[in-house]
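Contributing: when you submit paired examples, paste them exactly as shown. First protein:
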Amino acid sequence: MKARLAALLCLVPLPALAQQQDFSKVEVKAERIVDGIYMLTGSGGNIGLSVGRSGTFVIDDQYAPLTDKILAAIRAITPDPVRFVVNTHWHGDHTGGNENMGKAGALLVAHENVRRRMGAEQFNALFNRSTPASPEAALPVVTFTDAITFHWNGDDIRVHHVKPAHTDTDSIVQFVKADVVHMGDVFFNGSYPFIDASSGGRVDGVIEAVDQALAGTGPATRFIPGHGPAGTRADLQAYRDTVKTLRDRIAKLKAEGKSRDQAVAAKPTADFDARWGTGFMKGDTFTGIVYDSLP
């Protein structure tokens, strides 16, 4: 149980927890998605990487102690320095390298809510923990309200803010010509998602954001999730259908007047746990998180 909780806590920006990890054993690996676009894995959220004639473009940057390894993995692909870092949301396993990347010359870009949450102490009710404000040097320098487009490396890279989903800071990044979408933590491929209700996250927003992504893409689109392996449209559709089915079951229990503990005890995820609950997020925890995020 302790190890399971620690794994779940990795998704929340907790500096003390990050310090407890042995980053010396983490290996950062790059996987080619299509020509010019890669997914980097290590510890924390999946990193997106675009390389080409314009320069190096990065989506998320994991934890600060991994910056050197991340940059080494990028240099193995291209000698060009990182020009932009776009954060998909504010959690520390996606923004922990911001300060290092910024000091190395990258321009930090994110939705305005990312800067707002990173710039002030945050409290997570599920874990009863506070996260201190990030230093000024780690905050996004360029912020947007709805969307921003980069015309970069021969592509149109559209960064679109979605309604509160995983948090209220989420953005999805679409490489239009390459037909690749980085979903951030709106998409956990192969597992139940973590919905941070303390950061404004809502299960209904997760479903809506995935529906938007499916509607705006085609059968050959590749999807980079916040966590888990790179996925296909079928993977994203299966994830969406699972979250929607369980959302409806848990909402029904809540509408019937069941308390949070009673909803968890009803085991609404039981027939999905063998496939979706084998990672850090177990069915009972997911039920409670969804219950909390419902109106």
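Second protein:
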Amino acid sequence: MALSPAIARLACWLAFLAVAGVPCASRTLARDDGQPETEFFEDKHLFGFTEGTDVGEAGSREAEFTTTGAFGKKGGGIYQAIQQEAAYEAAATDRFGYELIALGSWHAIADVPGFDNLSQVNFAGLAAQPKYIFLRRGVDAPFGLAVSLEPAWIRIDDISGMHATNFSLETRVYLDKEFIEQKLLGAVNVLFASEAERDALGASHYALFGATGALTYRVAPEAFFGGEVQYYQAWQSLGFSNSVGSAFYGGPTMHLQLGPKAFVSLAWSAQLSGSPRRLAPEGLIAFNQSDLARQRGQMVFGVEF
């Protein structure tokens, strides 16, 4: 697929920044045992859909804009679903941070089996995400360990685009490690999300388990390139019964520092395998396309203030 002139110009500009020598964001943390201070990268957005453990330096504040897209159903037609997050992020301490999030959505669906045709933009809901670091990477242990909770109120179903009332809670565990100091970093996330939804068809319950892993390598002082894999298993219940399928994704990631206070992170993944919903509409039986799209993309832009 050919790039538009605007996208091509943006790619050239980002490539220029990657060679221009803009310092990569890092911060210095004091050790609790009184030993010399340790400097390391803030790695939250180095890995794409997978996140690092960091929450930012104590007292820091940041605006983040996350665009997540789901594209394509093999059964034919047009399927495009984009969720936009606008978040205020703050770190109360080096171990505890939180985000306050407003959600928007855009859906363009036409002639996809099992889906209503629609084209719409909506305010989609609100969420919050407190996050606590139990082990600081390079300070408490050779690896980092953190946990977050994300309660959310959603008024637009992110898959179908239909109006609904959805309450969800996602719990996520983060692990990360520097394999080569300031060069090669890796992260693993494990998540479990439970949802209760009411729409025009009635009430339903949904649960999702996910495990993701990523590696990224620093190719320039402010540029990281890597790859990640993602596995998801869904159930039509709040527990582990009535499975509705699974999916496995893989794809590349990129992170560019746009100066000491701004960054952009990009990721793209394609569904490589998976099991479908048992009663999937004809044409969507390959992989798990009733609940997950063939391809996923994400762009995060953040600026500290």
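If you have annotations for the second protein, write them as plain sentences, like these:
Residues 5-19 form the longest helix (15 residues).
The chain has one domain: 5-24+41-304.
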